[in-house]
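Milestone 3.1: sequence recovery, worked example.
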C-alpha cells in the first residue's frame, strides 16, 4: 500500500511530465524572452545571473527546449542575428503571442511542490557514528554561511537597482530574502540538531579521539 499523500503523487507526476512541451525549463525561457529578444547564450547568462540562486538550468536542457518551443510556435527566430565575440552568428529568439498566453496561464497556476529528497536528513537518520553526524552538520552550517555572504552581496547590488527600477528590485529582493531566511533557519537547525544528538565541537570533545567511535541509539521503529 502506498504511503504517499495525494499531493505528493500529483507533484511527482507533474515533475515527471513528458518533456514534449519543454517541461518547466520552457517557462523559465519564456519568462526571460518576455523581457525582450535574446540569443541562447544570453538566455543562459540571464538565468545564471538573475535567478541562479534558486533556479538552475543547464545548456543540455536549454537548447533542446528552444527547439521545442519554436516547433510549438511559442518562440520564433529573429530576422537578424547578432555576432558573438567569437565571430559566430547567434540566433536571436523572440516570444510569440501564443507563448505569452501559455506563460500567463502557467504563472497563474499554483506552484508545484517538489518531492522531498533531502540527503542530509537521510544520512543523519541512518548514521550511528556521532563523528559522521557532526561533520555533516558542520558542513551544512558552513554552506549556509557562504550562502548568506552571497545573498548579502546580491542585496547590495539590489540597492543600486532600486534607484533605477524599484519594482524589479523588489521582485529580486523577495527571492533573495527567501534564501536568506532558509539559510538562517538551517543554521539555527544545525545548532539544535547538535544538541539533540549530543554533538560537540571536534576540538573540544574528549570522546572524539582517533580509534574511538561514538554511537547513539537507533531511532525507534
Amino acid at each position: 500500500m502506498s504511503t504517499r499523500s495525494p499531493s505528493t503523487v500529483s507533484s511527482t507526476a507533474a515533475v515527471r511530465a513528458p518533456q514534449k512541451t519543454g517541461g518547466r525549463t520552457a517557462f523559465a525561457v519564456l519568462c526571460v524572452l518576455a523581457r525582450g529578444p535574446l540569443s541562447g547564450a544570453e538566455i543562459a547568462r540571464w538565468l545564471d545571473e538573475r535567478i541562479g540562486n534558486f533556479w538552475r538550468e543547464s545548456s543540455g536542457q536549454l537548447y533542446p527546449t528552444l527547439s521545442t518551443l519554436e516547433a510549438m510556435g511559442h518562440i520564433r527566430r529573429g530576422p537578424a542575428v547578432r555576432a558573438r565575440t567569437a565571430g559566430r552568428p547567434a540566433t536571436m529568439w523572440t516570444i510569440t503571442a501564443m507563448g505569452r498566453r501559455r506563460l500567463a496561464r502557467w504563472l497563474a497556476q499554483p506552484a508545484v511542490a517538489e518531492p522531498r529528497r533531502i540527503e542530509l536528513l537521510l544520512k543523519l537518520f541512518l548514521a550511528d557514528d556521532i563523528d559522521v553526524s557532526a561533520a555533516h552538520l558542520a558542513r551544512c552550517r558552513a554552506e549556509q554561511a557562504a550562502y548568506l555572504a552571497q545573498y548579502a552581496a546580491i542585496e547590495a547590488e539590489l540597492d543600486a537597482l532600486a534607484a533605477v527600477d524599484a519594482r524589479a528590485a523588489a521582485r529580486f529582493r523577495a527571492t533573495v530574502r527567501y534564501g536568506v531566511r532558509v539559510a538562517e533557519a538551517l543554521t539555527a537547525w544545525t545548532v539544535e540538531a547538535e544538541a539533540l544528538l549530543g554533538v560537540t565541537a571536534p576540538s573540544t570533545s574528549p570522546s572524539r579521539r582517533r580509534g574511538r567511535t561514538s554511537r547513539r541509539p537507533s531511532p525507534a521503529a
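Residues 119-197 form one domain. Strands lie at 38-39, 75-83, 89-95.
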